[in-house]
Amino acid sequence: MKILVINAGSSSLKYQLIDMDGEQVVAKGLCERVGIDGKFTHKLGDGTVVCKELEVDMPDHTTAFAQVKKALTTGEGKVINDLSEITAIGHRVVQGGSKYDRSVRIDEEVLKAVREYEVLAPLHNPACLKGIEAATETFGTEIPQVAVFDTAFHQTMPEVAYLWGLPYEYYTDYGIRRYGYHGSSHRFVSAICCELLGKPDGKGTRIITCHLGNGSSLAALKDGKVIDTTMGMTPLDGFLMGTRSGAIDPSVVTFLMEKEGLTPKQMDDVMNKKSGMLGISGVSSDDRDITAAMDEGNPRAKLAWDMRSYQILKYIGGYVAALGGLDAIVFTAGIGENQDRLRAELLEGLSYLGVKLDAEANKVRGQIQEITTPDSAVRAFVIPTNEELVIARDTKALI
Ligand code: AMP
Fold it and tell me: Distance between CA 110 and CA 112 in Å, rounded?
């Protein structure tokens, strides 16, 4: 059985074709600058690059899908004879509101709900809908499609964790609350962590998962279920990210809007695109550039790095209190899987909990590895995430 996994952004379309017999990636790729001019990258499952940033006219998501179809069924990148070999399509959908605590098969009701939640995720949900609509146009209505929500796994949070101290009516009228994101990633790595702890059902475990990438979030899990997470109504909350500020005093927003005459959209851009590691360092949002600049003695790059570590450690301390202790901590995503320096620093910052880093084991990149010593009071693991596989597995289960 082959499943096509789609992650549609406002001007992009990422795809993976996964053969579920063995869970192998058959082909994957990316349509970029959709609606602008169009660049197309297509690779085979073994990593062979069929084309890279090829200029292809892609005025909308439907033409992007046509390009994906062409690449999968013809030429050097051909992996299937016909689209009918694809059994189902799984879509990453960013915001599923309070309604969806698991993945669902897409029907009219689901589409309506995703559309309604556009107010909570104005940048993301319209793009997800475009992806679903374009898939329907390309594949027809016969093929089953599934929505896998970024927010779903966090729906186990209690009210005390997901509400903010605003008038309660804003929650009931507008759904203003913490939803959390990266749910598929936290779910994937926490399940593996529970297995590594010898408790596959999660019962009796207290875990903190750290998804550290361009966008970053932590989740605190008790008995395998999320009780708190750093991202909020939108993916802006939490700690310093590549270009996002993370949590700030909310009054700063109104102050800056008045002082600089910024519109809500402009203020949103400042906090989402010009802040975080980029805003503080003035160098880059990319961790590799930050470490290079730090090593050259750039003080603001070092400040950005230190601020992020400080903020993460504060969240972890808070979550340890909320969990009543800690059994394991997991690092994942681009930075979490590759940046041994940050992992070492964070684990050393947790030595008060009896955490003991295994410096040799910590040199690992991109594979499952325990990085604490056998006598460490809390175990730490690197566990590579695989959100596409979560989407493919849920899709298979639902059809
Ligand atoms: P993601 O959003 O999960 O793709 O993560 C992107 C982030 O991971 C960027 O800040 C990259 O600098 C960082 N990253 C990716 N590979 C490495 C690496 N080998 N060493 C350090 N950082 C990396």
Answer: 5
Pocket test for ligand 1, best of 287, 295, 364 (most atoms within 8 A of CB): 287
CATH pick for 2-149 out of 1.50.10.150, 3.30.420.40, 3.40.605.10, 3.40.50.10860: 3.30.420.40
| Residue 387 contacts residue 86 (beta carbons within 8 Å) | no
Its pTM surpasses 0.90: yes
Q: Is the CB of 233 under 6 A from ligand 1?
A: no
Query: Hey, where are the domains in the chain?
Result: 2-149, 199-382
> What are the residue numbers of the active site?
150
Question: For ligand 1, what atom is nearest to the CA of residue 339?
Answer: 21
Could you tell me which CATH number the domain at 199-382 has?
A: 3.30.420.40
Query: Which pair of tokens denotes residue 380?
Result: 């730490």
Q: Does residue 67's CB lie within 6 angstroms of at least one atom of ligand 1?
A: no
pLDDT tens for residues 180-213?
999 999 999 999 999 999 999 999 999 999 999 9
333 CB within 6 A, ligand 1? yes
HSE-CB of 181 using CA atoms within 13 angstroms: 21
pLDDT digits (tens, 9 = 90+) for 297-338: 999 999 999 999 999 999 999 999 999 999 999 999 999 999
> How many CA within 13 A on the CB side of residue 161?
20
Q: Is the CB of 213 under 6 A from ligand 1?
A: yes
